[in-house]
Amino acid sequence: MAAKILIVTGDAAESLEVLYPYQRLREEGYDVHIAAPARKKLQFVVHDFEPGFDTYTEKPGYTWPADLAFSEVDPGQYAALVIPGGRAPEYLRNDPELRKILKSFFDADKPVAQICHGPLLTAAIGCLTGRRVTAYPALELDMQAAGATFQDSEAVVDGTLVSSRAWPDHSRWMREFLTVLRAKAPAT
């Protein structure tokens, strides 16, 4: 039986940051489930960089069904966790069910991959203190306020926590995460 990996996300998550790890981890042989505040069709977004803009732009992206609601998640059934970015983490960090899920992964020292604005969730549960992380560069001060050492790098590995800046860094992020997964939670 394949090891299970949980992706936690919601509306306005970055399309590539949900779907790339979803497909890549399935390709590797993992059973991947997407959890959201409710079982529903999620509306993802596309963040891109346009000439002349000081920050990224946002356009509607893919839709994708959530396999289960946060209230239905049993963290003990999952070997690892993926936290995509986009705008979703800004409101998801307020969800008490999700905070319990996240905390259980850190308490059990299970592999966690976070990208872009995803570290806002781990910051909200106090699990970045003393850790090295990266995130979308605009979050450097947020990461420092959460007690982390910010590194502007494609991927940063701190124990079982693997973080990345944004979707252009996917290849390095997933390579590093798969190295941790193969050691701690092989696919079969």
Automatic annotation (TrEMBL):
SUPFAM superfamilies, per database record: Class I glutamine amidotransferase-like
PROSITE patterns, sorted: PEPTIDASE_C56_PFPI
Entries under InterPro entries matching the protein: C56_PfpI-like, Class_I_gatase-like, DJ-1/PfpI
Organism superkingdom: Bacteria
Gene3D superfamilies reported for this sequence: 3.40.50.880
Domain named DJ-1/PfpI: residues: 4-178
CDD domains: GATase1_PfpI_1 (cd03169)
NCBIfam families membership: PfpI (TIGR01382)
Matching PANTHER family: DJ-1 PROTEIN (PTHR42733), DJ-1_THIJ_PFPI FAMILY PROTEIN (PTHR42733:SF2)
Family: Belongs to the peptidase C56 family.
UniProt-recorded name of the protein: DJ-1/PfpI family protein
Organism annotation: Streptomyces monticola
